[in-house]
């Protein structure tokens, strides 16, 4: 039982996509998990459309869908005739009020756990990224300090050029200029 929960959690996690900056699940994936046809799922949603505002559910554009097909290697033959709907975490939670079967309740619980787990993973990564950034800043300041120390040591190692003393003495007399007469 525990192993199958982890397996189903992993399957659900793989179905969560990021589209328009949101973590979402597609209608066809949800329909498979709930054990219903995508058409029937969408029909139930359309009967209760007022429960699904744009931040709970949105339809993919042609460009988003073609990118999805390209990224996931989904066959373009058959299957989807209409652009799929994407459901945010709140939209999936709202599905539990629309679909009332026992299986839908159990699947919704698993999906909510998957969203929570992903949120925890992301927050852990953000904390780790912040700690790495702080460490990087410390290292940069240490690098600057170490560079300054080496520059100071190098300045100390350079021998000073001493002025050479002249041997003897300088005569500082007044000199007379002699004029030569020419005949």
Keywords:
Mlu1-box Binding Protein, DNA-binding Domain; 6 helices; 60% helix
Q: Look at the structure and give the mean pLDDT.
A: 78
CATH class wording: Alpha Beta
Which stretches of 5+ consecutive residues score pLDDT under 50? Answer: none
Largest pleated sheet:
4 strands, antiparallel
Structural class: alpha+beta
* Strands in their spatial order, largest beta sheet: 1-2-4-3
CATH arch. level architecture: Roll
Roughly how many Å apart are the termini?
Answer: 134 Å
Number of domains: 1
Could you please describe the fold and organization of this structure?
This protein has 183 residues and is an alpha+beta fold. The protein has one domain (2-131): Mlu1-box Binding Protein, DNA-binding Domain. Helix content is 60%, strand content 8%. The protein is built from six helices and four strands; from the N terminus they run αββααβαβαα. The chain has a four-stranded antiparallel β-sheet. β1 (17-19) and β2 form a beta hairpin. The protein is rod-shaped. 17% of the residues are buried.
Question: Mind sketching the topology for me?
Answer:
Elements: H1 2-15, E1 17-19, E2 22-26, H2 27-34, H3 38-47, E3 57-59, H4 62-72, E4 85-88, H5 89-98, H6 102-157
Antiparallel strand pairs: 1-2, 2-4, 3-4
Helix pairs in contact: 1-6, 2-3, 5-6
